[in-house]
Write a structure and sequence with these properties.
The radius of gyration is 23 Å and the shape is elongated. The longest helix has 28 residues, at about 90-115. A 3-stranded antiparallel sheet has the order 1-3-2. A hairpin with a 5-residue loop joins strand 2 (about 40) and strand 3. It is mainly alpha-helical and about 180 residues long. Helix 1 crosses helix 2. The chain is built from 7 helices and 3 strands; from the N terminus they run E-H-H-E-E-H-H-H-H-H. InterPro entries: DNA-bd_dom_put_sf, MerR-type_HTH_dom, MerR_fam, Redox-sen_tscrpt-act_SoxR. Keywords: 2Fe-2S, DNA-binding, Iron, Iron-sulfur, Metal-binding. This is Redox-sensitive transcriptional activator SoxR.
């Protein structure tokens, strides 16, 4: 019979939290070892998590699905207060510190979605547009990977391989780093 976390409970056991959060108990122990969540110990050395840990775990899982590194997740969670349930303003500070990085990630995903049927400068030369955008794999001279896809705005099939590029010729999502001191 599944463990049920009562809506009245202010704390949860590792099993209750894992079940309600939809993660394995080993994941919770890992998150705790990595400094992402905290628990208190009972006199019998059992973990007890405050109920607001559910939101932190949900945040961790969503961040991981977006590809955010654990170090960035840890930095963002460090913006949240200790000893009290985070308020909407606390969560807004976390959201703000990741805004630029998330916008870059969204732009990259949209670019991939919108340009995957075009030549992306990977060197395969298998699409008709490859002969126009990446004639004789000229983009390979710029470096490895999908050179046209790495540019702001994606491939530009109108200029046959003469797209503008950033200083390093690549666009990546940011590190997701937050300035813990600035938010406090």
């Amino acid at each position: 019979m599944p463990t049920q976390l009562s809506w009245k409970a202010k704390e949860a056991t590792v099993g209750e939290l894992a079940e309600r959060a939809g993660v394995a108990t080993s994941a919770l122990r890992f998150y705790e070892r990595e400094g992402l969540i905290r628990s208190r110990r009972t006199s019998g050395n059992q973990r007890r998590y405050s109920r607001d840990t559910l939101r932190r775990v949900a945040f961790i899982r969503a961040s991981q699905r977006l590809g955010m590194p654990l170090a960035s997740i840890r930095e963002a969670l460090a913006l949240l207060p200790e000893g009290r349930t985070p308020t909407p303003a606390d969560w807004a500070a976390v959201s703000e510190c990741w805004r630029d990085d998330l916008n870059q990630r969204i732009a990259l995903m949209e670019q991939l979605r919108d340009h995957l049927t075009d030549c992306i400068g990977c060197g395969c030369l298998s699409l008709t547009t490859c002969a126009l955008v990446n004639h004789h794999d000229r983009l390979g001279e710029e470096g490895p990977g999908a050179r046209a896809l790495a540019r702001p705005g994606g491939p530009d099939t109108s200029q046959a391989g003469e797209q503008q590029e950033s200083a390093d010729g690549d666009v990546r999502a940011g590190s997701g780093r937050c300035d813990v001191d600035a938010a406090g």
